[in-house]
Amino acid sequence: MDVLIKRWYLLAIACVINLCAGSIYAWSVFAGPKAEQLSQILGQTITAGDLSLAFSLGNGLAPIPMLLGGYLNDKAGPKIQIVLGGLLVAIGLCWAGASESLFTLFFSYGFIFCLGVGLTYSATVNTSVKFFPDHPGLAGGLTTAAYGFCSVGVPPVAHVLIQQFGITAAFQILGVVFGTVIVIGGLLSQKCPQGFMTTGRKDSPRSVKAAVNYNWSEMVRTTNF
After folding, report:
1. pLDDT of residue 141 exceeding 60
2. Rounded to whole angstroms, what are the CA distances from 13 to 7, 63, 177?
3. What is the rounded CA–CA span in Å between residue 109 and residue 211?
4. Which of 98, 97, 91 lies closest to 119 in space, CA to CA?
């Protein structure tokens, strides 16, 4: 299949992957029931606020795997990175559901799960933008929007699962489903060819100027700056 056509399928796959990776924003649905479960297990009152560190850790540490993922994606391509991210997402959510202490919850959700989310997200956005040098904003915007849309779609589903099966099973069901989807999506992903450029960009009448060395004062006076 021609790359110019296939890239649209790859973009759709990246969006589906990010719909699962964005499950980090469903934390508010899990926090209350998990706090009740831990209160019963530990014999002390634990509130949803006490568990907020798990979400804070995940969001605070997320930029680190994204930075490392960007390097890994450039070297090895998105397939390995997304598959690894999907496995970590599954392990993190399943472990969080089974956790019986604050430490294991914070480690499984705030570190393992969010490490998988960061690796997955950085690979999908990075690769999608490379496949669309003519529409980088569109590719980046769609993949990011899919990641954010999960905050709308997952909470109602998670709420139903919690009501029907309990908090532990809800974590684990979503972990298996999301992890499986991400891993399959990763196996279907591919690295953007080196130097890939659409026909439209190749035939563009705009020329690329040769690099010019400026000192700082000359640089700030340029139109590009």
Report:
1. yes
2. 10, 23, 15
3. 47
4. 91
